[in-house]
Specification:
The strands form six sheets. A four-stranded antiparallel β-sheet has the order 1-2-3-4, with no helix packed on it. It contains no helices and 23 strands. By secondary structure, the chain is an all-beta fold.
């Protein structure tokens, strides 16, 4: 299928349900509850460049002059009052174990952290970092991201970083990870790569198109992709086959 949207921003499975997905674009959010066969628009018409849903039913979207939340699964929305120096947010993620803890990457530079659902932020990194993802590895939260050196990780909320290597897609167009950070997917303009060891080694999947948004289920087996042309693709076996929504 193909979305009737002008662009591609974000994609996510909701909770542990491989049939429940959200797709974000410049004009809002689309929702599917049947694995991607059919979609309907949620009642928000704001730029969902970054998007995160949580088990408590909250959804946060962030983008160009947008920082909004729904506390009821997308039925109603309200702006988040924040002290961020800019609302031009180009990257966004939340702690899988604590929905009130979040990170925002600003177009003006730097990575910022909040522990109170976005009310107050502190800068934790001055340099740019792309595709920030928070994962829960064992009993600690780790951040994954991409910088000029490749894939990097932080054990302390973005204050210090260590290299994980350079994925074969580098530079990449998108990045997704399971909540525990063990399975990662990295997109490019002509393919999709999978890592089963936290980003240390990679193998190319059989998907051969552009991958401008990626989502993976909590076990890493279901993976969905939206191409630059806004086409939706889905695999239920870790990227081995792509029969479409099932």
């Amino acid at each position: 299928m193909r979305f009737d949207s002008a662009d591609v921003h974000s994609l996510a499975f909701v909770g542990g349900d491989p049939q429940h997905l959200l797709f974000g674009h410049h004009g809002g959010l689309e929702e599917s509850r049947d694995g991607g066969r059919t979609w309907s628009a949620l009642p928000v018409r704001a730029d969902a460049m970054g998007m995160s849903s949580a088990a408590d039913g909250s959804i946060v979207i962030a983008g160009h002059e947008v920082f909004m939340a729904s506390r009821d699964g997308g039925k109603t929305w309200a702006p988040i009052t924040t002290d961020l120096p800019s609302l031009d947010i180009h990257g966004f993620t939340r702690d899988p174990s604590d929905p009130a803890r979040m990170w925002a990457y600003l177009a003006t530079g730097g990575l910022w952290e909040s522990a109170d659902f976005g009310a107050r932020f502190a800068q934790v990194r001055q340099d740019n970092v792309l595709f920030p993802l928070a994962v829960r590895e064992a009993s600690a939260t780790q951040l994954l991201a991409v910088d000029v050196n490749g894939l990097v990780t932080s054990p302390d909320g973005g204050r210090t970083w260590s290299p994980l290597g350079v994925p074969p897609t580098f530079p990449m167009t998108s990045l997704a990870a399971t909540p525990d950070g063990k399975v990662l997917y990295a997109g490019s303009t002509d393919g999709l790569y999978r890592s089963a060891d936290g980003g240390r080694t990679w193998a190319k999947t059989t998907y051969s198109g552009s991958a401008f948004a990626i989502a993976t289920s909590s076990d890493g087996q279901a993976v969905a992709v939206v191409s630059r042309e806004t086409q939706f693709f889905r695999s239920s076996d870790g990227g081995i086959s792509w029969p479409g929504p099932d």
